[in-house]
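Morning run. Coffee first, then this:
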Amino acid sequence: MVPLQLAGARSMEPTDSRFPASFRAVGHDGFCEIGKTFGVTVHRASHSEVERINKIFRLFHVPHDSVGPCLRIQLPIRSRWSIMLILGIETSCDETAAAVVEDGKRVLSDVVSSQVAVHSPYGGVVPELASRKHVEMILPVIAEALTQAGKEPAQLDAIAVTQGPGLVGALLVGLGAAKAMAYSLRKPLIAVNHLEGHMHAAFLGKEPITNPFVCLVVSGGHTALYRVNPDSQIKFLGTTRDDAAGEAFDKVAKLLGLGYPGGVVIDRLAANGNPHAFRFPKAYLEKGSLDFSFSGIKTAVANFVRRFGPPAEQTAGERGQRAEGRGQRGEERNFDAQPTTSDTQRAEAVPGADSYRLEDLAASFQEAVVDVLVDKTIMAAKAAGVSDVAVVGGVSANRHLRQRLAEEIRCHHLRLHLPSLRYCTDNAAMIAAAAFTVWKRAGFSQNFFDLDAVSRWFY
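And here it is:
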């Protein structure tokens, strides 16, 4: 059959990245750009392939013609001269968030409803309470995101949602809302990995880099290193073997009676402390390893406090609160774990440790964690042969970590990419930004009603 000729249409390369991978893989005569849509003539496709594409297009009301094994498609996919609007939804843990993003980089709105007040009395996130709060807040947050963006639901081009990893009950709330919107509005749905969302946070509001880079994702639930290629393919390099860095911050803060979330409090206290007052163990593991381990330093701090008691500044009431908090939740029992060697769990202290300052303890603990994060990240960049490094996640908001990264990255002649503080913690703007990349790489989610929450989803 003779390929369709469209007068005035500008021809395009069959590998153009703006055309979904799922359709680039199908045999075709060539395709061209027509205004704000793409026109495509597909041939050499089997009847089953044509029927599969037909089914997708019927679902989303895409104009197309099908004659035997030939298919003429006019896709409503945006060209580089127009705008693609994506609504992102994030409910993987204890923030209910929604955002509208243009073309994966310009944030029109970003609404986050925090649950810190709900979980603070328990010293950590309670999954059941998180899920209930998501159910309460998901619709108001989405409505506010659309209002701030000045957009109607019908103006959206796609809905994006975090599918995992995260708390299953919390993820299901966001997935349910996204599926309902996609079905009722006849919009495509894009399922996003939460970690890939964090990787995009460093480039929100900026032009994404075209070079490969190493990314450290460091938060309360994750500490991992990845190599990200220009085609958005992600290669796993290393992860924590026990606690995440943010988890260690929160547990040490709880041990000291500092409240939740603990990372912010330790960061503030450490600013007025001596980071060299005490020397806590740093787990670099075997030579050349890009994995992490933070359970040892957490146990070392616990043993230090047992040995020397509470800081001199703490009152009897604060000591009682700390002791009570230590017995509230089962995970703190891990503080009694025995060391694997004679010195890995012992902190070396300066004279007078029996009257130490809380600020010095916080600064020394933070210094040990930051040292490992910075050293492993630079080691990964050298091993991967890249010149760009991104550090994302909640812990990337830590002031000392950002300062040390800037110093060390510059010394090693690398380029550092950090998210703005508002995009360090969980948000929906990063999910919408990542969805734009996922769409270009793999297209929309097919049969999205079958999508389920994934508690563990790692690269």
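The CA atoms of residues 197 and 430 lie 5 Å apart. Good start to the day.
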